[in-house]
Design brief:
Blueprint: H1 2-50, H2 58-69, H3 74-97, E1 110-118, H4 122-130, E2 142-147, E3 154-161, E4 164-176, E5 180-185, E6 190-201, E7 204-214, H5 218-224, H6 228-247, E8 258-260, E9 263-266, H7 268-326
Length: 327
Amino acid sequence: MPVKDKQDSGGHSDGSGIDRVREELSKYLMAKANSLVSSAGKKTGELAEKAVPGGDGGGLAEPVAKVLKGEESPAKALGGQVTEAAKEKTAGKVKELFGGGGKAGEKKVTNIIETLDVGLPLRRVYDHWTEFEEFSGFMKGVVEASRSEDEATVSDWTLKVGPSKRSWQATVLEQVPDKRIVWETKGETKTHGAVSFHELAPSLTRIVVVVEYTPGGFLEKTGNLWRAQGRRLRLDLKHFQRYVTLGVQEVPEGWRGEIREGELVRSHEDALAAEEKEEGEEGEAEDREEAEDREDGEEEGDEEEGEYEDEDFEDEDFEDEEDEEGR
């Protein structure tokens, strides 16, 4: 009996030891698993806070973190991320269309280049162009234009592109008679352009216009989608060609001043006086050449008359000799 009790006690003791080991091992595994999950959740949360939407993988960090934390369902988190991406893409396309693409604060610049041949002498075409106060009478895009009375380099303009009107001051940076004019404007709507004049033949002149146009305001940016400014300039150049070729017959006086680096170096009056002086000197030179030609002609005529008289004397001497021989 005592032996039996001892075996029973030993068997019970062995069974209780195995159960305790199993229980401790289960607790250890559960604690380890909880520690791993907690560590993963913490790391994911930190990643989600530091991630920037739209970066390399950063756009998914925030919804994944919300799912792991149990804040949102996977479908809701992913759907919100897709919607946000679509909104940003649509906004970017709209900004690009309306000249707002690129970095913040930048405006899209439109480059316009047009060429026109006019069947008139170079000076006449240039002089017509410098009388831009007349542009509003035949150009639909020019509402009003006037030269400043105080500064020869400044002019005031009001232009129309579609339903939009803009007024600004233009400053001439360079103006060389019969060659080129360079200008710029400042303000919400900016332009920087140059027009040059090229003689192709005595009665054929080519005009080349190059303009950088920065639209300002919603309507102008909308018009920029269809290059309305370039079409407007092209049509107004054709109006200029028609006007100077058929619409006006008198020779224009123009503005013959010269501007360099934004400063007036020779006024219109000084330029006209210099031209009159040059024309007078050229006229005097031509008169002197004509007088010299007349003098040379008279001298040649006297020499020819002298030769004729010598020939007459020789003929008379020959006749006298013949008469003496006959006697």
